[in-house]
Each structure stands twice: as structure tokens, then as C-alpha cells.
Design goal:
2 domains, 13-stranded antiparallel sheet, about 20% helix, outer membrane lipoprotein receptor (LolB), chain A
């Protein structure tokens, strides 16, 4: 009888524990949505503003704190500690940071990627993660200050990991861990209070790097009209603003010189395809390595490895034949261009097929905003944001202009070299090819190009990050997540002999 009584008590306990352990991410999020006010109510929040007092715990330095967002991905946070100001912002195209010691600068690399992910998260929480091609997976359980918590990890399509901790009893979000370049920012939430039907935390304990802060909010508002200018780069009085259109024209004039320099370079490029698994882990699935060189202003790409292994003798022979075919094609194209040049009209206007697509031309359908001067890789650069220009007439525009006219982003230009040093861009709206029948490139597709200055004369690619979703022939959806790494730049002259590209060092 005692054993039976023991089992009667023990079995329900095990069933309860098993039920808690088996709780899925969807159930955890459903409970969180409910206790925060309900998913429908959360989705009605298009903007929010929070204000209060911040205290740095190590020395009790304190001051004002403000934070605000606006859909779809605008975000701004600023505070001061005894007069020392720190501010960050994302204006939908680029992220920036300003403080009283280092001044204003544009975020780049992982810091830029992570902050863009945070801006999206601050606006939509986890509500649109499927639409953004992100994954949410279970991270197990944790104990936070004596509270049992369910841990979920949100992994964005670009591989940014945001950890969320939900109180196992109440279902409320009690901690976030968000990457910021080399750092992890931790935010602990408590003292939830209802604001317009949404439960908001009025106490935030933050840890950024080695510093810990306590934030006490005294005001939280929803759906107030916030001008986009509030998220733009602060205007620094007295700073001479660059003339962007003039600079772009100088870039265009400089492109012939750049082509001549590029003719003497060879480099290696590795293309890595990645896939975000159901477990939220971004994995490399396959890779190809190419040797790239230039012949009479045209790029020649020669495959040398697949998945880290050299080609077989037959594969290499076939690849060398492809290079020879490519060179023959270049020679034919040059002959055609020369023939078109002879047949130019009397006023000297070149045939449209013979026109160069320059940076200035690409941005002709864009509106250029927020020009500023900064330092990048030890060089003085001009930085500006670009966005679709609603006044541009696309009816007779060429295909490349119709595409670039739907992009937004940020560009860094070396003012002395007259070359692009860095570029980040994303597709502002869907782009249809063949009226959408052939392909439909989805809004949000992104591209980042990081360049390095080689031999004190030219900026050349080092890393390109491509992330997009495209629907082909109205049916098949394809997600592309790819990294291009370029390295081993060598200066040489290119000649083609016996179907191979030989390298001849400059004297």
C-alpha cells in the first residue's frame, strides 16, 4: 500500500516535469505573447518611446536615458552619465554611434550587422521571425536570480544569435542577450506595468562589456508620431559637408585609371554557401575556390578547388579550356565594340551598349542623404546613405537602374583615391524579373562589400556577404546565403598561352 501511494505521488510529478521539459518554442512564445498583452495588441505597436534615469553601478554616475523605435526598423538610444553622452541609432539604412570621447562614426562589419538585427528585434520582437527567414530554437533552461527560465535562441538569416529568457512561471521576458560586434549586451527586465494594454518592464539592468547599469523608466508611450530625422546621423555644426554628386563624377572620371591598375592584379576568391538549419545553426554547405585575373579590362575566373580539394587532372584541363573560350569571347566583344565606335553618330554620342555602368550612373535613381566625413581603415572617407528616389522616372530606365533604384544602404568613398571603400545595401521592395514570371527577388535581400587598400593604390574586395530570397517561375523559392572571401592579391601581367593563364611578374 505504501509503494502504491508512493507511485501515486511520484508519477504525476514526473509527468509534470516531463511536460515542462517538453515545452516547445512555439508554446513558450504563445504564453509570452499572452502575458505581454496578446499578439494582436503587440502587433498594433508601430512605435514606442521610453525615458527615465540611468545609473552606472561601479561609480553611481547617473543621468537621463531615452530610447525609441519606429516601424519597420528605426531605432535610437541615448544616455548621459554626468555629462558624458553616448548615443546609437539605426536609420533604416545604416547604424551609427556617437559619444563624447570618440565622436560620430558609422558602424561597420559585425557591429553593423548585429545592430541592424537589434533594430529589427526592438521593433517587432519575435513576431515576424518567419517572415524574416529567421529560426527560433530551444536553448534549454536556466536559473536567473532564483527564477527558473526557458531559453530560446533567435537566429537571423545572417547568423546573428539573440538569446531570450522567459520566466517559467509567469511567461514574461526577463532577459535578452544581444551581440554587438566583439561584445554581448545583456538586458534583465523586471517591474512590468501595463501601458495601453501592453505589459512593459520599467526596470532594466544592463551589462555592456565590463560596465553594469540600472535603468529606471518613468515614461513609456506607444504609437506617437516620430519623425524619421530623429534616427538620422546628428548634424555636427561647423563640419564642412562633402558635395556627393561632384565626388561621384570624380569617381566616374577615375574609373579608366582604376581599370588600368586592375589589369595587373590576380587574386584568389572563395565562394562559401551557407544554410540556416532547423536547429538555428548557420552551416557551410559547400565551397568553390577560384583564381581571378583581368584580361583587357575583363575578368577571367578559373576554378581551382571544390570544397577545399584541388580539381582532378581532367577537371583542371576542362577548366583551362573554358578560360581559353573566355579569352576568345573577350576578343570578339572588343572587336564588336571597336566596330560600334566607328559607327557613332555625327555628334559623337556612343552606342548605349558601349556605355560604362559607373557608380554615379547606378545611384542616379537614388536619393543621397546624410553626407558626413569619417575615418575608415586609417583613411579619410566620405560616407552617405542612399535610398529610392520617388521622383525618378523609371518608365524608360534600363534594367540595372530599375534594380538599384529599389535599393537602400550606405557607401564609404576614399576621397583622395576616388574609389569605393565599403558598401552595404538592401532591397527596399520586391524586384520582379520578366514581370515576376521568371523570378521575383524578395524585399530585404542584402549585400555587404568590405574592401581593403592594396599596395597604396587600389581598393579591392576582401569579403562580400550576400543574403537573399527569390521565387523562380512563380513556384520555386530559393534562399541564397553566401560569403565571398577574396585574398592573396598579387600584381602581375596576364598572358594567355596554351589555354592557360600564366603569371609574369612586373619588372
Amino acid at each position: 500500500m505504501k509503494r502504491s501511494l508512493f507511485l501515486i505521488i511520484l508519477i504525476p510529478t514526473f509527468l509534470c516535469v516531463a511536460n515542462v521539459a517538453a515545452q516547445s518554442p512555439s508554446k513558450i512564445l504563445k504564453q509570452a505573447n499572452k502575458v505581454l498583452g496578446g499578439e494582436k495588441v503587440l502587433q498594433t505597436v508601430q512605435s514606442w518611446q521610453k525615458a527615465g534615469k540611468i545609473t552606472r553601478l561601479k561609480d553611481n554616475a547617473s543621468g537621463s536615458f531615452q530610447m525609441q523605435t519606429a516601424q519597420p526598423n528605426f531605432y535610437n538610444s541615448r544616455f548621459d552619465l554626468n555629462g558624458f553622452e553616448t548615443e546609437v541609432g539605426y536609420n533604416g539604412k545604416s547604424g551609427w554611434m556617437r559619444d563624447s570621447r570618440d565622436g560620430l562614426r558609422t558602424l561597420t562589419g559585425e557591429a553593423s550587422r548585429d545592430f541592424a538585427a537589434e533594430a529589427n528585434f526592438r521593433n517587432a520582437r519575435w513576431l515576424d521571425y518567419k517572415k524574416k527567414k529567421a529560426k527560433i530554437t530551444s536553448g534549454g533552461k536556466a536559473n536567473l536570480n532564483g527564477n527558473a527560465a526557458n531559453v530560446l535562441t533567435l537566429t537571423t538569416a545572417k547568423g546573428v544569435l539573440i538569446k531570450m529568457y522567459f520566466d517559467q512561471t509567469t511567461g514574461l521576458l526577463i532577459r535578452e542577450e544581444i551581440p554587438a560586434g566583439d561584445l554581448i549586451k545583456t538586458f534583465d527586465y523586471s517591474d512590468y506595468q501595463a501601458v495601453n494594454g501592453v505589459n512593459e518592464p520599467f526596470t532594466i539592468n544592463a551589462k555592456i562589456g565590463e560596465d553594469a547599469y540600472e535603468i529606471k523608466l518613468d515614461q513609456v508611450t506607444h504609437n506617437q508620431t516620430i519623425a524619421k530625422e530623429n534616427f538620422d546621423f546628428p548634424k555636427i555644426s561647423g563640419e564642412p559637408l562633402p558635395d556627393i554628386p561632384r565626388l561621384l563624377m570624380e569617381l566616374q572620371k577615375n574609373e579608366d585609371k582604376i581599370d588600368e591598375i586592375l589589369e595587373d592584379y590576380s587574386y584568389t576568391q572563395k565562394s562559401i554557401k551557407r544554410e540556416l538549419g532547423k536547429d538555428g545553426v548557420l552551416r557551410e554547405t559547400e565551397s568553390e575556390t577560384f583564381q581571378l585575373s583581368f584580361y583587357k579590362g575583363n575578368r577571367i575566373r578559373r576554378l581551382i578547388e571544390k570544397n577545399g580539394k584541388p580539381l582532378s587532372e581532367k577537371e583542371q584541363t576542362d577548366e583551362d579550356k573554358n578560360v581559353q573560350k573566355r579569352v576568345a569571347e573577350i576578343e570578339r566583344e572588343i572587336a564588336k565594340k571597336e566596330a560600334r565606335t566607328v559607327s557613332q553618330s555625327a555628334n559623337g554620342t556612343p552606342d548605349e551598349n558601349n556605355q560604362r555602368i559607373s557608380t554615379a550612373e547606378v545611384l542616379r535613381a537614388s536619393r543621397l542623404v546624410n553626407p558626413r566625413r569619417e575615418r575608415f581603415r586609417g583613411r579619410d572617407v566620405v560616407v552617405f546613405d542612399f535610398e529610392p528616389n520617388p521622383a525618378f522616372d523609371f518608365r524608360r530606365a534600363k534594367s540595372f537602374l530599375k534594380f538599384f533604384g529599389k535599393t537602400a544602404g550606405v557607401m564609404w568613398i576614399d576621397e583622395q583615391d576616388k574609389q569605393v571603400a565599403r558598401l552595404e545595401a538592401f532591397l527596399f521592395d520586391d524586384f520582379k524579373i520578366g514581370g515576376g514570371f521568371l523570378a521575383n527577388l524578395k524585399k530585404g535581400a542584402s549585400f555587404a562589400l568590405e574592401q581593403e587598400r592594396v599596395n597604396d593604390e587600389i581598393w579591392l574586395p576582401s569579403v562580400a556577404d550576400i543574403n537573399l530570397s527569390v521565387k523562380v517561375l512563380l513556384v520555386k523559392g530559393i534562399n541564397v546565403n553566401q560569403i565571398l572571401k577574396s585574398y592573396n592579391y598579387r600584381k602581375f601581367k596576364t598572358e594567355v598561352k596554351d589555354s592557360k593563364v600564366d603569371e609574369i611578374k612586373n619588372p
